[in-house]
Amino acid sequence: MATVSWRTEMHDLLVIGSGPAGYRAAVLARLRGWDVAIAEQAAWGGTCLNRGCVPKKAWHHTARLVAHSRSGDWQARGLQTPLQADFAAAWQHQKDVVGRVRDSYVDYLRRLGVTRYEGRARFIDAQRVQVNEQTLAARHYVIATGSAPRVPAPFQRIPGRVLTTDDLFDAPPPTGRKAALVGGGVIGVEFAFILAMLGHDIVWLTRASPLSHGRYSAPALKLLGEALARHGIAPRQTTVQGLAQTGNGLALGLADGATLDVDWLLLGTGRLPNTAELGLPAAGVALDAQGYVAVNAHLQTSQAHIYAIGDCANPVMNANQALADAAVAVANLIEPGSRARQPEAVPELVYSALELGRLGLNEEQAEDAGLEPATGFAAFETNPRALGMGAAEGYVRLVAELDSGALLGAEVVGADAGELIHLVAARYGRTDALASLAQSFYNHPALGEEMQNAAETLGAKWGLMEQVFGKAPGA
Fold first, then answer.
1. 427-456 pLDDT tens trace
2. Residue 32 has what DSSP assignment?
3. Is the pLDDT of residue 4 over 70?
């Protein structure tokens, strides 16, 4: 057994995990003048930087370029020859991007004066943590240990044959072009498009209709399905009942009775919180029934000085929620009880054949909450910027409370939805949100102008023009 060092390092805050949640918490606390340390047992930056949103968005950009080159729009612009993707080169490109971001990330921690410990952190008790052979102590702790891919039966990881998304980013990709993709959630919807555009013959297997367990509207899902179908991408609703290795790849036995031969298979079957090896019982930190660290609205665990954030404590499991959790936790570390988690205010995105973005409540959810919703809609089909880009699909939909005009939610479908959603995220819940959107000055032509149009349409349709433009002169 390793001997624990007799010398105990004391910090104001020790963060366990360096993904978006942990990194953001460490930076925010250090900017407030705290003595902060962060412990990481694997690659700095966690899943998002190394195996998730950062490299995946690099691939998505490449996939969009390939898709656009096949649309006919390039020929209309006088550009020749559809693009052809080289998956091995695309893999190396994302690796280079990740390396540059990671170097910048670590350098910023160094320049801020955040102490870094490399190794597995495990609680000795509620006050002390062991990292390798050193004992550390802190006045406060933030657990941000992220998640790991879920590998359900009948699957098991097989190098080069059965891969999780972690595996796909960790090692050079398999060479076979025919791949099965399992999963109809966000990961499945995104990788169905990405892999197909990067040169693969994809068989997409889902239990149910893609994103059917999410909160996107039926019109949004219809547009996404049509965009995928134009590239020959459609889900096959069945499950894998058996799997065997063959000389050339895998043979899959499907629930519909068919046998499917593929070169390799990618699992997009969800993730599980990383909480098992932290020594949480020794610290008196409770887990919930699903294995997440149990937290209250302020992200405190059962130990008031220990907080938990991100995937290990948040079943939504995305980087946006992790970053939001970090801000909430640090606010409460500085001033206990000052800020509550507000998950509905955090944008959620899908990056596929179309981008989908949303936040807050949709009309049905608002009604279920006892509110009376009013909606405003503006399509990109006549937007000059969208037409010039060859990206006229999609729309902006705003949901407001009828009496007060407070912004309850929004949905953006189409090009750059991931950027446009920020225009409403900053105004979520505000009674002056419609006025702010309608009365702001915009670049022209711009996709963002449809936010203004949607706000004006909502005001005119539902008799909220006073909330949008103020009282008329002499009123």
1. 999 999 999 999 999 999 999 999 999 999
2. T
3. no
d(CA 333, CA 35): 13
State the CATH class of domain 8-148+272-344: alpha beta
**Mean pLDDT value of segment 300-305:** 98
A 10 A CB-CB count for 332 gives 21
Of 243, 315, 235, the closest CA to residue 275 belongs to: 315
Using alpha carbons only, give the angle 283, 273, 306 rounded to the nearest 5 degrees. Answer: 30
Beta-strand pair 36-40/115-118 = parallel
pLDDT of residue 8: 65
Crossing angle of the two packed helices 20-31 and 87-112, in degrees rounded to 10: 20
Superfamily of domain 354-469, CATH level 4: FAD/NAD-linked reductase, C-terminal dimerisation domain (3.30.390.30)
pTM of the model: 0.95
Burial class (CB within 10 angstroms; exposed 0-12, middle 13-18, buried 19+) of 257: exposed
What does the DSSP assignment read for 41-109? SSSTTHHHHHHSHHHHHHHHHHHHHHHHHTSSHHHHTT--S-----HHHHHHHHHHHHHHHHHHHHHHH
1 band by pLDDT with thresholds 50, 70 and 90: very low
Return the structure tokens found at 208. Answer: 């149910």
Q: Is the pLDDT score of 94 beyond 90?
A: yes
In terms of residues, how long is the chain? 475
* Phi, psi values for residue 362, rounded to 5°: -90, 180
Domains 8-148+272-344 and 162-269 fall in the same CATH topology: yes
Strands 128-131 and 121-123 come out as: antiparallel
Instruction: Look at 1-15, 144-158, 371-385 and tell me which has the smallest mean pLDDT.
Output: 1-15
**Helical H runs in 301-430?**
319-334, 363-368, 384-389, 417-425
Domain ranges (residues) in the chain? 8-148+272-344, 162-269, 354-469
Q: What distance in Å separates the CA atoms of residue 149 and residue 164, rounded to the nearest whole number?
A: 6
Per-residue CA distances from 95 to 117, 129, 165, 194, 209 (Å): 24, 33, 14, 16, 32
Q: What is the rounded CA–CA span in Å between residue 310 and residue 145?
A: 8
- pLDDT at residue 306 greater than cutoff 80: yes
